[in-house]
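ESCALATION

Customer reports they have been waiting on this structure for their group meeting. Please prioritize. Original submission:
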Amino acid sequence: FLFHVIAYMTARGLLGYLVAAASWQAAVSALSFLLVAWDKRQAERGAGKEGRIAERDFVILALCGGFFGVSTGFRSLRHKTKHGALLTRTTLAGLAGLGIVAAILLVPQL
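Update from on-call: job pushed to the front of the queue and completed.
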């Protein structure tokens, strides 16, 4: 499937957009993972709400392309894994973000 997407975008001269989108997603995912790790550390130290990252911000990061970083951080660091609603919201936000990027990249240029 990925080969077909790359071939389609290359044929239409859009490969640079695909590379830019992938670079953006990689950077935001790395930042998201680091923020999950920081929030986990703050939670272990007993920091109050002022020193922590709001769950809403994790959802926003997932929507903006950081879904893989947020979800990997939650699972690998065992952080917020009991918050089922948060995991659902970040997953839906990540899918919505991917859908938006796919629509922008794959819709024929007007």
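Sent to customer with the following note: The mean pLDDT is 85.
Escalation resolved.
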